[in-house]
Each structure stands twice: as structure tokens, then as C-alpha cells.
Amino acid sequence: MHKYSIVLCVALFYLLCVTHGSVFPKRYQTRKRTSNEFDVLIFTQRWPLTVCFLWKKNSEAHTCSLPKREEWTIHGIWPSKFHSKGPQFCNKTLTFNPKILAPIESDLKENWIDIQNGSEPYSFWKHEWNKHGTCAVAIKPLNNELNYFKMGLKLLDKYNMMDVLAKANISPGNKYMPQDILNGIQKVLNIRAQIMCVTDKTTKESYVFEIRICFDKTLQLVNCDGIYDFPTNCDRTKTLTYPSRVPRYHVTQL
């Protein structure tokens, strides 16, 4: 073939690629992620006494709804991409309906409790469903509102941090280095978790706030490597309080 003909063919091929995106079949093209795609599910449990501390420090009028027993409670199940937040609020047509949760409402009130007393009824569950549940429905076991919340209760029953930490000899009322808590969880569950803290700006004391463990899309435990804020926002050089009572708060100074 003449060299000018070759040049003309190359030019025409390039023009087709530019104007039509690609001459290759779609199955060979790189798919862009849609807004509801994710890599892992983060199951987040929170320590109610620290959550109450955060709530009460904002106003002397605030009171807390705490579980009847000393236990960790559910924050949520969060579909997440590696090294990023989200996805979130994936489907606005999946509106929250509290009546759907009637069969498990009593369990939710104890284990997925809205610690911020005085909040609008069902507002916490509504928020978790709208923000995270509408994305989690991509997985069959969490494919509707009832299944999403039932899965939270199921995961708490199997991976309750009260039990996990106790097996690692970590108990409320004591202080630990953040890495010691992470090591304890890894020893018991054989995965790397995430721990989050809050710090009293006046006393500089830090408290255990949340612990997060991760699952793949088949709901098998996996390392939380690569998730946002991994593995902790705690100061690794200082001890961390695992409080056995609501910490004292300083409303005007925090």
C-alpha cells in the first residue's frame, strides 16, 4: 500500500474514534463507575457514652437515650469506595417508611438507638436509610429497607464490639493505646479494623467513639485497608479512654 494511503487510513481511523467515542464494541470499552458503585461495606458501631458526651457538650439542655445494658450500638452499614467517601443518597425514590420496620422496631430501639434524645422520631433511621441504605440495596441481602436494618442487627449479634474487645481483654473504664485496640480486634477477628476518637479540647483527653469493620459484597469480613480515614483519627502517641460513664463535658470551652 502506498505510504500516502496508509496515512489517509490512519487519519480516518482517528477521526472515527474522536467523533464516535470508539470503533470498538462497547464490551471492550472501560466502564465508568455509576454513582451507586462501591467496593466494601463498612459496618460502624459506636460507643453510646462517647456519643452522649458529644451530644451533651453542645447544649446543657441536651439529654441522651442510652441502651439498657452496657453495649455498643449500630451507627450504620455504609457502602464505600476505596480512598473516598460514598456513594450516598443513591435513590431518592426509595423513601423511608417506618411502618416497614414494625417487626423489628423493638430490637432497633435497643441496638440501633438514636442517642440524641429529643430528635424527631425515626430521624436517625431515616437518615441512615436515605444516605446509605439506598446504596446498599445493590446487594441482595440488603435489597430493601427491612433487610437493610435486619442485616445491621444480624451483624451486631455476630460481631458486637462488646464481645470482641472483651475477648482481647479490653474493657470499659480503662485506657489503651489506639494500636492496642486495633491489634486486639485483629487478633479476635483476623482483620484490620478502624477506630475513631473524639478529643476534649479542654482536657485533651481522647475517647473511643466508633469502631468500623469491613465486608466485601458477599458479606465476608475483609480488611478495612484503603477506606476513608484509615485506620484511625486518634493520636497514636497518646492513650485513649474507653469510658465506663459519660465523660464530663465543657459546654462553653469545646
UniProtKB/TrEMBL annotation:
BP terms from Gene Ontology: RNA catabolic process
Keyword Signal: yes
Keyword Disulfide bond among record annotations: yes
Positions of the catalytic residues: 75, 128, 132
UniProt GO cellular component terms: extracellular region
Residues of the signal peptide: 1-21
This protein's name: Uncharacterized protein
Organism: Cardiocondyla obscurior
